[in-house]
Amino acid sequence: MNFTWEVPTRIHFGTHICEGALAAERNCLKGCKALLVYTGHTLRENDTLAKLQGLLQENGCTEVLTYGGHGANPEISEAEAAGKQILKHGVNLIVALGGGSAIDLAKGAAVAAASNISLRDHLVKGIPAPSAILPLIALPTTAGTGSELSKGAILSDRELKIKGGIRGKSLAPKIAIVDASFTWSMPEKLTMETGFDALAHAIESYLSRKANLHSEQLSLQAIRLIGENLPKLKRDLSDREAREKMSYASMLMGMNLYNVGNCLPHRMQYPIGAATGTSHAMGLAALYPVWIKEEYRACPDKVMNVFRYLLNRTPHSAQEAEELMANFLMELGLCVSLEELGVKEGEIAAMVEKISGDISVDPAGGEDGICSKLYIAAM
């Protein structure tokens, strides 16, 4: 039962808490010149960005510059451009507003500003983030990625067609303000995709060989919350109680990301995203039915428990586990194949070569050729 648990981020959680949380953190904001990193145009158009700029200045920031990213797969070139802005203007605080892409972009910018090597070297060679980088405040506007608590930044290199993580304890935000009201305006597709990402974190951190008694309890709590509330949001996007519970489940899994990490589907999605430009969650969704089938063969008791908490159902075979997962994804509108995402069978060997990290933490990861097998089965 021995384990070590670390959550270095100070967390403010609730609904309509942003203003109070920033006021409570006034000592961390006073006298700072901040770079506010975001992605997309919605936050600017609905005045959320301007309101946050105002709140930061009201609570002591001397200046708030902005940097906008472009999409769901932040590029190292974007992070390096933001890093140059940090150095040029003497920024000493980074604030990230948005989903995982915005928070990961902000983390990448912090590394770019502090490192004496390129982000490509960090990404390709697995060099950790510098131990001393600018402090980061994360305000997630989606419920799913857990990046507001994790110690990784997922970035893409369009030229090399790779996607991967820069990691290091220094990348964990200093402060996370998880305000569920930010998620109220999420459209259905984004709600389902980010919600499934949170579920994937819960399932993978539960099945991982690195799991411990505490992380398993958090995983099961998150699986149950998501199983109850994500379908509610599919039926009614205005269900604010369900929104708050999804934000809570996502936050819990941010803790598991920091302490336990993920399994094969996340590592295998990165080459999919790099090759196709499709979203993280859709790549996961394509892999999940065939992956859970292999997990059932490797650790049936734990997989059965996953489905008890998720669907109040108990699969009694690997095939049944695959079918239950596929049906769940279909109900959320997320059931796709790799072929539908744009993957060609001739690309599979190259995608396997680009998978990084220790796959042995996955119960099925020890099987020879497992990644090729899963990619082919998911086509």
TrEMBL record:
Keywords for this protein: Oxidoreductase
Q: Which InterPro entries match?
A: ADH_Fe/GldA, ADH_Fe_C, Alcohol_dehydrogenase_Fe
Q: Which residues form the Fe-containing alcohol dehydrogenase-like C-terminal domain?
A: 191-354
A molecular function GO annotation:
metal ion binding
Q: Which SUPFAM superfamilies match?
A: Dehydroquinate synthase-like
Pfam families recorded: ADH_Fe_C, Fe-ADH
TM ranges are none
Q: Where is the Alcohol dehydrogenase iron-type/glycerol dehydrogenase GldA domain?
A: 8-179
What this protein is called in its record is Alcohol dehydrogenase
